[in-house]
Amino acid sequence: MKYLLMVLLLGSSVLGYAREQDAAPQRIVALAPHITEMLYAIGAGPQVVAVSDFSDYPQQALTLPRVANFAGVNIEALLALQPDLVIAWRSGTPAADVNRLKQLGLRLAFSDPLSLDDISTELQQLGELTGHADQGARQAAEFATALQQLRADYQQKSPVKVFFAMSVAPLSTVANKAWPQQMLQLCQADNPFANVKGDYPQVGIEQVLQSQPEVIIQASRGGTVADFAYWQRYATLPAVKQQQFISLNADQLYRTTPRTLLGIRQLCQALDLYR
């Protein structure tokens, strides 16, 4: 079986496109849940033949074979599907597996959205790459317009001090360019840890107590409400004293897809209750 070697770069790194003479791929493997979701959003779902673990949206993706997880890519299973395009997650797919795919001569593309605006860019590029340029451009424009409107709606809002709990054991939060931090900034949430070292720093409870957040935010999966029991022992925190907690949908919050808009709206509207 012969493979055509072509490396395409999407996202915030070097941008690339398929050559005009290249036919649209008909057997695509998506190596991250956000890639799967974006491919379906632009109309390329019927071309996807395999995905990674946790690719659970849309529902059609649940029927597809899984060839990757957090530990790496099942190269043998992937090859058996004879893909004509593999789209990897530059920040998440193990480098050793990426190198192996390159050595095998697979047609390879990378997705790596690092900012909210990158979602629009990638929707358009994936559309061009997969033969769905019109729908990709339409989805990109709709996302960009909605994102711009959200920024306009919230840029003059009064800030509210928050603590975003990525986890409580260990206690960690978000900062700098972390995906949730970008959303907090858009919604005019004041994160006292926004500029500490790293995007997902661990912090001490003493630091949180000192920061006195008015709202505590956590995300959960599976349609459940986040468990805020950990915080009840810290009654001196304004958020605990007033029982001001926000539970968010983790998939809408963490996945870089068009559904990110739902996560932003949910966060912003919830914060409006506490301004």
From TrEMBL:
SUPFAM superfamilies, A to Z: Helical backbone' metal receptor (SSF53807)
Extent of the signal sequence: 1-18
Superkingdom field: Bacteria
UniProt keyword annotation of Calcium present: no
A Pfam family it matches: Peripla_BP_2
Family matches, as CDD domains: BtuF (cd01144)
Stored PROSITE patterns: FE_B12_PBP (PS50983)
InterPro entries per UniProt: ABC_Transporter_SBP, ABC_transptr_periplasmic_BD, Vit_B12_bind_prot
Keywords: Signal
Record-linked PANTHER family: MOLYBDATE-BINDING PROTEIN MOLA (PTHR30535:SF34), VITAMIN B12-BINDING PROTEIN (PTHR30535)
Protein name as annotated: Cobalamin-binding protein
Organism: Rheinheimera muenzenbergensis
